[in-house]
Amino acid sequence: MTASFSAANRTEYLDRMANAHFDILIIGGGITGAGIALDATSRGLKTALVEMQDFAAGTSSRSTKLVHGGLRYLKQFEVKMVAEVGRERAVVYENGPHVTTPEPMLLPIYTAGTFGRFSTSIGLMVYDRLAGVKRSERRHMLNAGAVLDSEPLLRKNGLLGGGRYVEYRTDDARLTIEVLKEAVQRGAQAVNYVKAAGFLKEKGNGGITGIQAVDQISGQSYKLRATKVINASGPWVDELRKIDGSRHGKTLQMTKGVHLVFDGTRFPLRQAVYFDTPDGRMVFAVPRDGKTYVGTTDTVFEDDPAHPLISEADRDYVIDAVNGMFPDVRIRAEDVESGWAGVRPLIHEEGKGPSEISRKDEVWVAPSGLITIAGGKLTGYRKMAEMVVDLAARQLEQETGKTVGPCITKEMPISGGDVGGSVNFGAYTERKIKDGVALGLDRSAAERLSRRYGSNVDAVYERMPDPRAKAELYGMPQELLLMLRYAIDEEMAVTPSDFFVRRTGDLFFRIDEVRQHKVAVIQYMAERLTWSGEQAKRFANELDQLLMEASGRI
Questions:
Q1: Are 90 and 253 within 8 A, CB to CB?
Q2: In this structure, are strands 272-276 and 100-110 parallel, antiparallel, or unpaired?
Q3: How many other C-beta atoms can be found within 10 angstroms of the C-beta atom of residue 204?
Q4: With 0-12 CB in 10 A as exposed, 13-18 as middle and 19+ as buried, what is 231?
């Protein structure tokens, strides 16, 4: 049993990185940075990545959790983006069916609504063609009766019919982690909680040669050197450009999106629904693991992007949207179990409101050589990475003579995705469930683990030798202890928040279990990672703050 990406070895990894020189150094451990790391290292480039928070702690764990093609962007005539991103959905799914799954989506049509029957039919048909949707997943138009058969909770007044098409539901944070783990497996070096505090530059021409990095856990400083430095820091790209002295021309416009989570007994949604609100925005309501989550809002955001919060106005907007479309549910504020706020780092467009700003991505190259990638969507992460690495590879060839091959990630399974493709994932999962049961797990736990970890589930099962005694000692379920041990050893989970938010998503979708087991998890991590008393208190307070932000109580 190896620990190749262990939280216990962070300092060792940083020391090793400080004594190396990289072809590519990436600042930012969200999905964009993780995708770049995988693309670059798979082409043979010596690659490093640092993230000042946890991996996926920003936008990449706080999205709508859909790998979708952007149907609504057809209204803005973003045809090229819809075509490219739409086609990428199937690529993301095939390379990681354990973190992405098809989700039939219902688009109801109402009198005086945003969409008419004819325009919806044409729009979905165009979407199918642009996105290269396979025949079995192409749109079907439904009459009002069929729509209500699919989802009886929908408002009946004014219902004309609807369209059903397929999107893909994902665990955005786990997608990011799995992409990054694959990059590390292929030779990349990556460490979380390391801030790029400044740039190393050549005297004379001011060309960037690396970064001044600071470990946010220990306070230790490091000099990390690379031929090419890529700024993939999402909401912080302008801050780094400012440090570089290259913040001019286009800049970011951050917007905030809020999602609320309800228990499935309180909001028993059968079918994912994509619907419009009275102010013309589009909102998703999605059933997931016994819960229903709804979002998103879209408002201008100018505060600290590390701590976007759900305001009362945000909460009321989403609740009003739910009650307007699902009137019999009669949701109230006290029904909100959890929720999250995320920041979208979009490229500013003068005169456009938050929902009108394009989600397209752009690459900017500074005089210092700093390469910045801004904008974009979760779904398009692989193509964004290909574009950035192509640019860096051309520059490396011109400057150093190093020859770099083409992108090879299109048919490359991410970590956990080596299950024989989506068509074989079900059978693979069944085999691994049986293996888990044979080791002493109950079937439901073995199924959850097999579906979450895919082809990595054997590495989770390897941590079974003494789980019953340990589980009793720390007062947590066997399944939870297995996930925790794996997250620390193989996914660089440094804090309890890393585990409960980014490695499991429990803070959003099983929040009562977080409250029940947080003390045991903190105790285990404190012993395993040899925290000081001050560190244990700080990390416990951080988790309590996140619980408060998500639900209004600890």
A1: no
A2: parallel
A3: 6
A4: buried
Residue 261, phi then psi, degrees to nearest 5 = -115, 135
pLDDT for residue 3 is more than 60: no
pLDDT at 357 over 60: no
pLDDT value for 120: 79
Q: Is the pLDDT of residue 46 over 70?
A: yes
The pLDDT tens digits for 206-228 are 899 999 999 999 999 999 999 99
Which tokens is 87 given?
A: 């086609």
CB-based burial of residue 134 (10 Å sphere; 0-12 exposed, 13-18 middle, 19+ buried)?
Answer: exposed
List, for residues 384-402, the tens digit of each pLDDT value: 999 999 999 999 999 999 9
Per-residue pLDDT tens for 523-536?
999 999 999 999 99
Our measurement of the distance from residue 363's CA atom to the centroid of its chain's CA atoms, rounded to an integer in Å, reads 21
Q: Chain centroid to CA 115: how far?
A: 29
pLDDT tens track for 155-179: 999 999 999 988 899 999 999 999 9
User: Does residue 251 contact residue 348 with C-beta atoms inside 8 Å?
Assistant: yes
String of DSSP letters for 285-299 = EEEETTEEEEE---E
CB atoms within 10 A of CB 84: 19
Query: Shortest CA distance to 50 belongs to which of 238, 233, 228, 185?
Result: 233
Contact status, residue 172 vs residue 56, Cβ threshold 8 Å: yes
C-alpha pair distances (Å), 291 with each of 265, 317, 417, 471, 508 = 8, 19, 25, 27, 10
DSSP 35-53: HHHHHHHHTT--EEEEESS
- Which of the four pLDDT bands, split at 50, 70 and 90, describes residue 196? very high
Distance CA 550, CA 544 (A): 10
Measured between alpha carbons, how far is residue 262 from residues 28, 182, 287, 334, 546 in Å? 32, 34, 9, 10, 17
**Distance between CA atoms of residues 491 and 5, nearest Å:** 6
